[in-house]
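Our preliminary data section would be incomplete without showing what the modeling component actually yields. Below, a chain of 168 amino acids is followed by its predicted structure, encoded as tokens that our downstream tools consume directly.
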Amino acid sequence: MVIVLVGFMGCGKTIVGHVLSQRLQVPCIDLDTEIVRSFHASIDEIFSRFGEEAFRKEESRLLKRALGSGSAVVAAGGGAFCRDENRAAIAASGAVPVFLDVPWPVLMSRLEHEATDRPKFIDAVQAEHLFRTRYPAYLEAELHLRLTGQESPSEIASRIEQQLAAVV
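Predicted structure:
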């Protein structure tokens, strides 16, 4: 089974993905890391040199490859699940998308402290607009974890395992 963690930047997809993959004893595939490897450039450099569309095309290609890799936990980029083609590929593969729903004020607090190499984070107003725009797509995920932002990655991984057991 492939589990795809989705949600806005700063929600914890990468760290939760690593914890969950260790617990399930499957690989963790971080799409942003794979894109950086593919381009041999940082995300910020990719956006400035090649443009967002080139980034998104590579993201979709790498997501499809990850979906066919067997059992894995995939930490998707914040915009990956917002593209119709990616949601369709996830659904067609039988993967389980899990929305890590962290409240906006918590995300904003995190992003203010770690906004480096996040080209889609320009300022608080723009980021909140992007969050509100993407939120309806995230709600299409099969599993929805409402979080406070105070949970540890291990606690979140446990909740995902519990919800998966109820679905699978």
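The chain has one domain: 2-167. The mean pLDDT is 91. Preliminary results of this kind motivate Aim 1 of the renewal.
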